[in-house]
Amino acid sequence: MPQRIGIVGTGWVADKHVEALGKIAEARIAAIAGRNLERAAELAERAERAPAAAGSAPARPAVYADWAEMLRRERLDAVFILLPPHLHGDVEAACAGRVPAVLVEKPLGRDLATVERALAAFEAAGTFAASAYMNRCRRSALRARELFAAPEDPPVLVEGRWVTPVPPPAWWRDRSLSGGQFVEQCTHLVDLARFIAGEIVEVAAFAASGFVTDLEGYATDDAMVVSARFASGALAQFSTGCFPSPGPDEDAGIGLTIGSRRTRCALSGWGMALRAETSGGGLEIMEPEEDIFEVEDRLFLAAASGGERSLFPSTYAEGLKTLRVTLAAVESARTGRTVRIARGAR
């Protein structure tokens, strides 16, 4: 029997998940909730026309303006919470115990207290909760992690860069809503760095502003540089910015490089294509998946339905750890002090 899925949110990432779920025969989008009812109806129509529904009677998902009403009326096997950072919290708490499985878009929120409360609710209810860091599901990221797994050749230096045009949503331009670019976008690189090189225990950051003056409602940092130390003693440097104009090679501004004494891995572009070189002259190249959201959603639904939660590489608790690092960097930039991240913090 197909898994009945509810979607909360109607933005860009909701569009990606509707498309991905439409390719999965075991998935049925049963309901979509969003304040933009016109957009929710458009997504529901697309879900009805999905390729995976071709062999069964067409069924358009129900559309709700209120996610609480959706949860009251629908019997759901999983809920995808695809909301901006400032709208998280209440919906996670409501899903805990009411829905068996929940996938939450990154970042999980804009403050630790909200996310810690949600994690506690999920754990108390036994809900399978995951964070949507889709890059952990990529072949390239898994291969990079494998290359640096040998204890005799650990990572020494990690360098990340995310410098791209300003995203369109109005909420993104307001740091009080989005958390800023390091929290909302560069979180992908921080999470991958943790996934491959281990826990980050210390950060020091600088932020720049005053350069972007021509965008209405712009109230976030123009650029940020963050230095970090891993528990292993390895170091990282992240550079972020949201100032270039759109161009044909926007992917050139995104990348993560990991180096050890014998291995160098470069993950580049939004798709995280891999180029790995070893001291013996070896070269390995891996291109991105065609649809990483489909890969992510298949893994999540398999983990949720089969009881093998370890199949999915990005738990909600892991998402909280990444948020802890990015918020520590924001605090460091604000105060001018190095911020230590508590060892053992969830």
Give keywords.
six-stranded parallel beta sheet, nine-stranded mixed beta sheet, alpha/beta, Rossmann fold, 346 residues
Description of the molecule:
The chain has 346 residues and is of the alpha/beta class. The chain has two domains: 3-133, Rossmann fold; 135-292 and 323-340, Dihydrodipicolinate Reductase, domain 2, CATH 3.30.360. Helices cover 32% and strands 24% of the residues. It has eleven helices and 15 strands. It has helices spanning 12-21, 37-48, 67-73, 90-95, 112-125, 139-147, 175-178, 181-184, 187-197, 292-306, 316-335, and strands spanning 3-8, 27-33, 62-64, 78-81, 101-104, 128-131, 157-163, 200-208, 223-230, 235-241, 254-259, 263-268, 273-278, 283-286, 339-340. The strands form two sheets. Strands 14-13-12-11-7-10-9-8-15 form a nine-stranded mixed beta sheet. Strands 3-2-1-4-5-6 form a six-stranded parallel beta sheet, sandwiched between helices. Strand 4, helix 4 and strand 5 (101-104) form a beta-alpha-beta unit. Helix 1 runs parallel beside helix 2 and helix 6 (139-147) crosses helix 9 (187-197). The two termini are 35 Å apart.
